[in-house]
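RECORD TYPE: inverse folding
INPUT: structure tokens
STRUCTURE:
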């Protein structure tokens, strides 16, 4: 305990929202909402895991699939928040749906790996009536679509591309057509010759500026990981991030989630970090040996979903919910389960938590959705 107290005290120097001892934490018993993709993937493979969630039109939409194993097309399941029943929309022509983005009043989904050829990449837009996902096959060279954002009146898409193409495209006509946006170093477009992975994995909007996380790898190793900043119609080199963070693999996303709070952007890679200028990155430790799988905004307050491996034969994972306030991070509730939690969403007083193992070994409870009534 003395060691833990010392660690928590030292964190005050590392992160603006630091870890604090839990003051209202309590054990909760989640409601099991079921496994929506049980029939689609009865063998319990990770393709039925819920990688992301979003609410629109009183429906909780879920993203699933596995682009590494080419398990598409992906059926779009939803949980009706009024009837508490499952439903689905038509399957999308993609191997995985790993990210939802709400822009204005519209919900979008990124096409992580379209099943069609690589000439164009996909994103998907939920119709105004909330019943249909409309395929937008308009991203030039988009082998993968990892992120979408709006900035400066334009719609930007973060892509994985082949050599000779730019991993960022933008639209000035509401997403109907896109053009490539160059990434520049010293005024010259980056050289992608020999690239096997040429990808922008994430956008960050911070202090009225747009940043992009770029990664380049050849057939041997990762060669570059850097931040580029948008200015004057292109992205210019901003900072080297080759050693900025450590990634814990529990999904296919390099940055699982990012949230801007005040003068800081917090992001999780399995480990939690914060930055103010996108040059210097500081770690944020909630609890020893715990990793953070998702970040959620709850009534304007930043929250984190954490998982800790414990010594137990039946329930080896301790899943907890942390809240960030002026006095630091504090644990609010926890429960134990045989699977780790990989994504979360808060809506209407309820925390929805998705469970799943990120291994090649099937598990009968992969893709389970739980509901936790937030304790007051």
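DESIGNED SEQUENCE:
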């Amino acid at each position: 305990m003395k060691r833990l107290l010392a660690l928590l005290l030292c964190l005050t120097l590392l992160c603006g929202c630091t870890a604090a001892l839990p003051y209202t934490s309590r054990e909760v018993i989640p409601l099991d909402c079921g496994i929506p993709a049980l029939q689609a993937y009865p063998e319990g493979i990770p393709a039925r895991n819920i990688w992301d969630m979003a609410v629109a039109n009183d429906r909780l939409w879920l993203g699933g699939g596995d682009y590494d194993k080419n398990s598409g097309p992906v059926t779009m399941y939803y949980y009706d928040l009024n009837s508490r029943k499952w439903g689905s929309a038509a399957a999308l022509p993609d191997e995985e749906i790993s990210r939802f983005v709400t822009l204005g009043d519209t919900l979008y989904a990124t096409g992580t790996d379209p099943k069609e050829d690589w000439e164009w990449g996909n994103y998907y837009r939920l119709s105004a009536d909330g019943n249909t996902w409309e395929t937008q096959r308009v991203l030039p060279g988009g082998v993968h679509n990892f992120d979408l954002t709006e900035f400066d009146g334009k719609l930007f898409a973060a892509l994985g591309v082949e050599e000779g193409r730019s991993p960022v495209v933008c639209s000035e006509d509401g997403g109907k057509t896109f053009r490539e946006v160059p990434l520049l170093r010293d005024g010259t477009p980056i050289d992608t010759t020999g690239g096997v992975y040429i990808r922008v994995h994430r956008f960050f909007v911070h202090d009225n500026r747009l940043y992009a996380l770029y990664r380049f790898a050849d057939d041997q190793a990762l060669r570059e990981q850097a931040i580029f900043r948008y200015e004057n119609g292109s992205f210019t080199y901003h900072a080297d991030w080759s050693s900025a963070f450590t990634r814990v693999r529990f999904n296919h996303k390099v940055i699982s989630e990012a949230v801007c709070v005040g003068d800081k952007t917090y992001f999780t890679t399995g480990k939690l970090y914060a930055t103010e200028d996108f040059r210097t990155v500081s770690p944020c430790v909630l609890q020893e040996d715990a990793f953070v799988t998702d970040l959620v905004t709850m009534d304007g307050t930043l929250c984190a979903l954490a998982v800790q491996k414990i010594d137990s034969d039946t329930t080896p994972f301790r899943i907890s919910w942390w809240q960030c306030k002026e006095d630091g991070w504090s644990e609010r509730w926890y429960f134990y389960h045989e699977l780790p939690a990989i994504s979360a969403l808060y809506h209407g007083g309820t925390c929805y938590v998705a469970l799943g193992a990120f291994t090649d070994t099937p598990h009968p409870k992969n893709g389970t959705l739980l509901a936790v009534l937030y304790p007051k």
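NOTES: The domain at 99-245 is CATH 2.115.10.20 (Tachylectin-2; Chain A).
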